[in-house]
Amino acid sequence: MRYFMKYIIICLIILLAVVPAEARTVELTLYPAKSPKPEQKYQLMVKAEDQFDTDAAPLYEKAIQSLPSSLKMDEIEQWLKIPPDELPLKKVQSTLQQFEPALELLEQAARCKRCEWPYLYDDELSENLSKHRRLLFILALKVRFEIARSRYNEAISTMQTGFAMARHLGKDSALIRGMVGIGMAAYMCRQIEQLVQRPDAPNLYQALQNLPHPFIDMTKQAEWEEPDIKEKVFLLMDRLDRHVAALQCIEAIRIYVGSHDGKFPQLSDFTDIKIPVDPVTKKPFSYKSNGSEAILELEGTEGSEGRDAVRYELKLK
């Protein structure tokens, strides 16, 4: 048990470095956006017909090996803390060019149906997952760079790659890889929060609806674990799925205001589009509006001590 708890501690350290477990208040300035035509125009997962029956794991390893030895993550992490419009675009572009071999390999890996991760001992696994975290941050920086340049199709394609890496980690039999995969998917969701604030950004309501539910299912991996470990796993799964549902609600709001004089709706106003409920409580999220501003809240769930609570403060531009 002590040996496995060491594993869990390693995982949580890496996971918290990606998405801290804390309540959030997120201020979003939204622009109206109609639902895309055709509805399946945008996808956050690679389509089955575009996938190949090959193993992604060697491609991820090659991507890690291709990273520059002089890689400075501190600067990249600082860039990820500022809005896309504030990025030093020329410097970011020059940095991303160093990662082109890794990014190409990640795109190939995203189109693989299988990912057969090798067995690693705890110290090796810790180092390996830390390197995957670096790949995630590089992908997130590329997304933000593309958003800043209004290259939304490219940004969505890069998100596909990030979500695919998260899913590949989540399908492994090892509990730890799956937990880190959940954190990676949540980090990609935070990039969607940046996209929806652009005046000409496409609407991702349908793309979010098409994501698997649960996005990463670790029920089997957690089945024989201790109750406290199992609880942590289920909290992480729920937290991610609630995040996706909340983003879908926001996209539904953008669709509504696009055809109703730019005013926030009340929940009762939605008749032509389905509003997702909280996947945990099976009840509507807390939502209120005065027409020009709105608040969408995800209340803390049982066992989370409020750390998974999110308050979206919405304004219209």
Task: Write a short abstract of this structure.
With 317 residues, the protein is an alpha/beta fold. It has helices at 2-18, 57-65, 73-79, 89-98, 100-110, 122-148, 152-170, 175-195, 205-209, 219-222, 227-257, and strands spanning 24-30, 52-55, 112-114, 286-289, 293-298, 310-316. The protein is globular, with a radius of gyration of 19 Å.
Q: Which term fits the overall shape?
A: globular
**Total domain units:** 1
Gap from first CA to last CA: 54 Å
Strand order of the largest sheet: 1-6-5-4
Sequence of secondary-structure elements? HEEHHHHEHHHHHHEEE
User: Tally of extended strands?
Assistant: 6
What is the count of helical runs? 11
Radius of gyration: 19 Å
Q: Main sheet, how many strands, which sense, barrel?
A: 4 strands, mixed
List segments where confidence is low: pLDDT < 50 over at least 5 consecutive residues.
none
**Roughly how much helix do the residues carry, as a percent range?**
40-55%
Helix/strand-derived class?
alpha/beta
Would you tell me the overall average pLDDT? 88
Percentage of β-strand residues = 5-15%
